[in-house]
Here is the input.
Amino acid sequence: MGHPHLSTGGAEVEATTTVSKKELATTRRKKGWNQKTLAPYLFLSPFFIVFLIFMVYPIIESLYLSFTSTQGTSSEWIGLENFKNILTDGLFWKSLSNVFIILLVQVPLMLILGTLLAVILNSKFLKAKALFRLMIFLPVLIDLVTYSIVFSIIFHEQYGIMNYLLGVLHIDPIQWFSDPFWSKVLIIIAVTWRWTGYNTIILLAGLSAVDDSLYESAEVDGASKFTQFFKITIPMLKPILLFCGILSTIGTIQLFTEPSLLTNGGPNNATNTPVMYLYQFGFQSFQFGYASAAAYIITIIVGIISFFQIKLSKGGEI
Amino acid sequence: MKKFSLLLSLLLVTSVLLVACSGKDEKSGATESGATIKVAAWNSAADALTEQIEGFNKKYPDIKVEILHSDTGYSKVTPALAAGSGAPDIIQTQARDFQAFLTKFPDQFVDLTDKTKAYHDQFIESSWGAVTQDGKVYAMPWDIGPTALYYRIDLFEKAGIDIASIKTWDDYIEAGKKLKEAIPETTMTGYTNDFNLYEIFLNQLGGSYVKDGKINVNSPESKKALLLQKKMKDEGVAINVKDGNGRITANNNETIATNILPVWYAGTLQHSVDKQAGKWGIAPLPAFEEGGNTQANLGGSVLAVSKQSKHTEAAFKFIEYVLTTDEGQQVMIDYGLFPSYVPFYENETFKENNNYFGMEVYPFFAGLTENIHTMDHGPIMLDATKPINDLIGAVLEGKNVDESMETAAKAISKTTKLEVNK
Amino acid sequence: MKKTSLFTKMAAYLFLIVVCIASVYPFYWMFVGSTLTDSDIFQFPPKLLPSGEFMNNLTGLAASAPVWKGLGNSLLITIVFTIATLYLCAIAGYAFAKFEFKGKNVMFVVVLLTMMLPAQVTLIPLFKMVIGLGWQNQPQAVILPALANAFGVFFMRQNMMSIPTEMIEAARIDGSGEISIFHKIILPTTLPPLAALGILSFIQQWGNYLWPLIILQERESTTLPVLLSMLVAPGQVVHYGQVLAGTVISIVPVIILFLLLQKYFIAGIYGGSVKG
Here is the structure.
């Protein structure tokens, strides 16, 4: 974000006034400079203490596990064998390709919807904003019991509302749960339903930071709403959009809840995901070493993708 | 604005204090007096055990019992077993998973061979297989799941189907077609996205997951079980109801007319399909060929004592009380847990008439336990869930059965390092 | 200022209403379900109007699980966590957004990387540690590990990047210390993102499932969502009406919090603070 740095100008003007004031200013600036060097470390320390103990340390231990055959209580150093086995397992690649297909459709869809909703919720003419905001945000609060039952009812192949509505339009009933293609569509719909409101709220918080005067001067210049959206809103939202993009990418690659709840990875692994794969090994068959290795492979993949997302978004600066 | 940050810091301080205080309370409250044993169990099993505490304490007032409500996925006990600390004294597992637990967590369970010897003849013979390894017993069998055919009496009448004429699965499929013709919106039965139906068929056929220590999912019995489920689906007499919720919906809306499930489903029908009281009957399973075996088991669990326990004697006393006394089993049956402890079959409570079905349900199921084949699950079930589900999915989708069975066997072999039977 | 055209307004309202119906329907179903008997819940087509079973379901639920204790535990854990994480993330995010210092990039990348790691992987090591500390069944076992909130730091950093640097410089020239700049200028100007992060952190912790399930083993010490999930599992009689009544209770605090905080989302970020 390119905000002009106006730092020293004021101090120089001040310096020319009186000696005593000048002295005062220098001592202040000196003290400030020392403080300024130490401040970031001080500010980061509370977070980093917790972070080192409860995140970094367990990560190091699980990194060690990934090079072992740890299964239940037995453990042995086996080097890269876990990594080799995962990377040669067709099921892992299948699950990876599944999330990529879902990712490519779902994340753009959700961000477009989210931005649109955020702009509408932020617009001046809208009445009952609080109510709309609440309703848009609700889905992320869904509990898993309701989520699973309601989606099964709506998308039920024999008597679901969705297939009924399609029937009214003379479209053949869709096999939401038993067709590999449509089950992915179902997952995309479910994920978009649950997470769009969440992203809308983040984008809305970002939008409210955009200075109104920018729009006012654009109005004076005769720019249309459409131009304003692309010339002001989108550029101002860029860091937040990128944030949402990276987060949603991570979330989709780590997709777990929807497929395990709605399709159980089926039919025939068409909606299986890498984290379901990891979970199956780690928490259903207790192969903690293998599961840890899978987790690091997933992390590396997510890391690479996020890196390119950051690079590709102009400027290369998050 | 200032107020906000002031409020924030104030709240932060109070909350830190709150946490600190609640921590202290916890410690001072945990004064020792006699043994306290913790039991991890799930759902209605946990509820039943909770109700047992009162009766148990009449006999053993010094032993305090706490029930930890767990989940069927074992996420509450496995981190503790893996970490070697923090485990409860008594752990419930599914009978079919216990061998896998013994393999994956060696030295985590107390040898109960001597303690259980006296009870050996009092439990259904087939239930000891799951808890024995190298001749030593590591857990006590709890409940079992004798399986039957639940069917809608009224819908069968409407379609002109005589339940007595259904002797084999082929008869069942023919009856299903007849039903569909008479009542187009109702299908004969439903299956869920798991391997329940497969396991029922496999057990009925006398097949097993592991044979002589080798993976056996590619056996002829396995193929027969898979092909029957596929045939049911292809002939339009079985639909996918997805999961337990889907099955309840299907039953309530007359989408399906029968359920092929164990004794515990009687409880679900009574509770969640209560409007159809009097409309349901129970019959033995059809056989694969005329005069063949009509009995099968699905499910059931065991209770084991953790080696991390400091009170193994007290823990076993609790297990003994809840599983080998009439008082204990009386509570269990109230929660629909069908005992593998045979002497209880003579108890009056056990013989009570059931109003929903208009029959003595438990004695009926007790009659379906005599010829259940002992089934060797081997130590593979925790690793095999996914490959077996995939196998069924592939077969139902029309993939080659033999190839799919090989794929599943190989997948299980890869993680368990066991050989595959040829 | 040009008026938004009527057509645009209509289109916007229509779009919003469609989205809202889709968003709200499952919750409406949940609410209706909590007022029905169990077999009515599974009737098809689904019932659209509530019936009178809510209190029955609720008392049944309270009899089978310590829901009110669970609600209390959930509230304690979530409130303490949310307040603490807001402060830690704000101050750390500020350091990353507005300071240059040695090791900044490495530290930031490490924080980002942990966000990309599937959370399941640290469960076993974390479990060993927390058991070792003797925190089993205690609220800090859930609160403290959750404070390693990489997401929150990243979120605050992104939002604080747009704070004008001259505002901070001006305060320095006036002689304010760095800590007081953070408390008196930065915090008040970032109320909208703080409110947003507050609600996001709250729901994240409120719905947190796997870790509390593992570490809060006693029913009396665990959270409401964990309690409810224990009541629904294959192979047992599930009292759906009771569970749905529980989920209705469980979402009320989150909705209240949202309504309380949502007005801050629209508060202008520079409002009233540039001059002060």
